[in-house]
Amino acid sequence: MKQEKQQLLAKTEDLEESINQLRKENQILEQKYENLKLAKMLIVSDDESKDAKNRIQKLVREIDKCIALLNQ
């Protein structure tokens, strides 16, 4: 029984380590996904360059507003 308990505890530790490793990998993949979404939003063809500039200017204005609110 003691030997079986030790084996089960070791297996539990291995599984917990695997879970933690998968969670870290999941976080990395989620971050990469968010980066890809942002990159796709900014990637445009030549025809859309004017729209892209407007979107970027809008983002910059929103960031400036946030900075101004933080400085108050």
Describe this structure as you would to a colleague.
With 72 residues, the protein is mostly helical. Helices cover 89% and strands 0% of the residues. The chain is elongated. The mean pLDDT is 87.
Short note summarizing the structure:
With 72 residues, the chain is mostly helical. It has helices spanning 2-42, 49-71. The protein is elongated.
Which secondary structure elements does this structure contain, and how are they paired or packed?
Layout: H1 2-42, H2 49-71
CA(first)-CA(last) distance: 66 Å
The general outline is elongated
Number of E-type strands: 0
Helix/strand class: mainly alpha
Strand content: under 5%
Summarize this structure as a short list of keywords or feature phrases:
72 residues; mainly alpha; 2 helices; elongated
